[in-house]
Amino acid sequence: MLSTMMSYPLTTNHVLERAGTLFGDRVVAWRRPDKTVVRHTYADMRRRARALAAALVAAGIGRGDRVATLMWNNGPHLEAYFGIPAAGAVLHTLNLRLAPEDIAYIVNDAEDRIVILDDVLLPLWEKIRPHVNVERVLVAGAGSLPNWAESYEAFIAGRGADYVYPDLDEHAACGMCYTSGTTGRPKGVVYGHRSTVLHSLTIAIPDCLGLSVNDAVLAVTPMFHANSWGVPYAAAMMGANQVFPGPHLGAEDLLDLMAEERITLALGVPTIWMMIQQALDAAPARWPLVKGMRMMVGGSAVPPAMIRAFDRHGLTIKHGWGMTETSPVGSLAWLKPQHADAGYDAQVSVRAKQGIPLPLVEMRIVGDAGEQSHDGKSAGELQVRGPWITGSYFKVGAQPDKFTADGWLRTGDVATLDAEGYMRIADRTKDLIKSGGEWISSVDLENAVMGHPAVAEAAVIAVAHPKWDERPLAVVVAKPGQHVSAEALREHLLAQFPKWMVPDDYAFVDALPKTSTGKFLKTKLREDFRGYRAKG
Ligand code: AMP
After folding, report:
1. Ligand 1: which residue has its CA nearest to atom 23?
2. Ligand 1 atom closest to residue 355's alpha carbon, by position in its atom list
3. Taking all residues of the chain, what is their mean pLDDT, rounded to a whole number?
């Protein structure tokens, strides 16, 4: 027997209407390249997103056509988040930190028909342009335009007042993002209206981000990477104010914005928060931040020392895990009632885990001998499935190295699940260190090294060893003006790990190579240290 409930499609158009009509006076603000702040409302955003949709339809963009953005986090990008899907088309966000050749490959693979650019990114597009074949280039912002580009403002002007949304299947594509592709060519992940709406609703729940109309959200995570963790959609759904930093991602600029805009929730990768922590430690009273501001941090592991450091400033880290393939939020670490009296140290170690799967997401750990028990110790590959987890890639389909025959996504992360339901990442499969036949987690060592007060950043990689096969090498960046020795770090680690896990080798560098999304680029580190012979 079927239910008597209506068959009502879940679409981002509903979110746009809701934000623009029920929360029309809530703010969308962003920093322009010249650092001035522009202030719109959700009513403005709705009007302009509908104008964009109408203009795209008038330009011949049809259902499922890809319209790309090459933009920083700003108001016009939010308009594109809603306006492109409102035309029945697919928002394809391009990662502006990639090399021009890689961006060109991605534009061609996706067959983008139109691209919307920030004016400050025109020089980057000049390098991409000879290698791609898009029909129209729309430029947001002021400035003079080359003859092959058009003004975004002129494109949307006067459009959309009577725009009628197309009837959309909730399974239709609304967005697209390519994987970072540290190995092999990047692959397209295609998000749907339904998956985006369900993801937005779920990340807003109290135990996850606890998003409400009273929030002011600062998305530092790029809107070109996994929809800025889906938060722009969720914040619009709840009517929360949204603030965007534009191209200004320095710690002091971000802290100024957090203080001025009374931010209550900010999101970014750990490398951003490391900079912010250093700035706050150096001048704790300089920025009057909202007490209890939440910070969603993920993309790579959050060191427990960072959670403690922000707690001291009265700011709360929420640690999440996800992938481009998972929309991206798969889990978030929140405390259960039994942790209330567990003591601060125990609470921090729970909060430093990658967390509890969100409602509707399933996780399992698969080792050589099959599914592992949930004992917090038995490690294996993390596999996930759920309504916002991709089941294949654009054009490529579902290759067996990425998906199991019974329909789970193989994440490539090595993890454990414990009896309370918390997932903990030990490593990427290819980053684990095998020393004398035993696995060592590079993530655990990195977290501990970064817990040393004189260390700003650290990454641990495997280096060849004649006897043990591989040994860990810690590559360390000291905090500005501070010095730390290999002996001091060894001592620090010996208090937390068995001797065989503790690196004998330490290299001190000025900076660590990072990926386009701010993760430590271990492939580059491994290249830099190829031929390095471990001690002992
Ligand atoms: P991407 O698709 O570029 O966002 O990368 C996804 C990968 O980032 C995951 O498969 C993990 O390896 C890593 N990752 C994301 N969040 C975390 C986290 N909280 N802790 C450790 N690794 C993470």
Report:
1. 300
2. 19
3. 95
What is the Cα gyration radius of the chain?
23
Q: Which helix (H) or strand (E) holds 202?
A: helix 193-203
| Rounded average pLDDT over 88-113 | 96
Q: Which of 434, 438, 500, 535 is the catalytic position?
A: 434
pLDDT at 428 (0 to 100): 85
Residue 93 a catalytic site member: no
Expressed in percent and rounded to 5, the helix, strand and coil fractions of the chain are: 30, 25, 45
pTM score of the predicted model: 0.91
| Domains within the chain, CATH numbers bracketed | 12-24+33-190 (3.40.50.12780), 432-528 (3.30.300.30)
Report the pLDDT averaged over residues 395-414.
93
320: pLDDT strictly greater than 70: yes
Residues with a CB atom less than 6 Å from ligand 1: 179-180, 226, 298-301, 319, 321-324, 328, 354, 411-413, 425, 428, 517
User: Using one digit for the tens of pLDDT, what is the confidence trace for 344-368?
Assistant: 999 999 999 999 999 999 999 999 8
**Residue 200: partners with Cβ closer than 8 Å, 6 or more residues away:** 15, 230, 233, 234, 237
434 is catalytic: yes
Q: Which atom of ligand 1 is nearest to the CA of 319?
A: 19
Could you give the count of Cα atoms lying within 13 Å of 470 in the half-sphere of its Cβ?
Answer: 22
Q: Which atom of ligand 1 is nearest to the CA of 425?
A: 21
Q: Is 325 an annotated catalytic residue?
A: yes
d(CA 140, CA 249): 20
What distance in angstroms lies between residue 114's CA and the mean position of ligand 1's atoms? 30
Among residues 79, 170, 261, 325, the one annotated as catalytic is 325
Which pLDDT does position 56 carry in this prediction?
98
Rounded mean pLDDT, 459-468? 90
Task: Indicate if the pLDDT at residue 406 is higher than 90.
Answer: yes
Q: Which of 413, 427, 430, 445 to mutate to test the pocket of ligand 1 (most atoms within 8 A of CB)?
A: 413
E strand or H helix at 174, and its extent? strand 173-178
Percent of the chain scoring above 70 in pLDDT: 99
| Catalytic residue (one of 153, 439, 468, 524) | 439
Q: Say whether 416 is catalytic.
A: no
pLDDT band at 181 (very low <50, low <70, confident <90, very high): low
Give phi and psi for 398, each to the nearest 5: -115, 85
